Hints:
alpha+beta
Amino acid sequence: MIAGTRRIVSVCLALGMAVLVGVANGSIAYAQEIMPPSLTGSWNGSWNSQTTGHQGPLSANIRPTGDGNYSATFTGKFFKVIPFRYQMKLQVVGASDGVLHLAGSKKLGPLMGYYSYNATVSGNSFLASYRTKRDSGTFFMRRR
């Protein structure tokens, strides 16, 4: 009778552990779905001016700033041959259901006015719209 009891206890413990592991794994998967993604890393994509129709490649190296926001160094090409590079603070303005919302602006000077953007990041996709005094458009990037 003792051997039979041990076997029943062992089976119950094994089933209990399987249920606990399943619950834990489900909880982890659920937490990953609702937690916003990290922007840290290298991204590739393209930009497109809705004002002029110009477009080109765009890359970004993004790192955390320590205050919950990010710093991005963007590089790309204008007119397919003119390189550009600029840095921008990416300000986190919200997060919901695994989507990170960003917004901000930067003064470019008296001729160009302000550069402002709104962006969403979901998984490995980064979609943004931008506006300057004389231009507006979008850019899309994917994590490398």
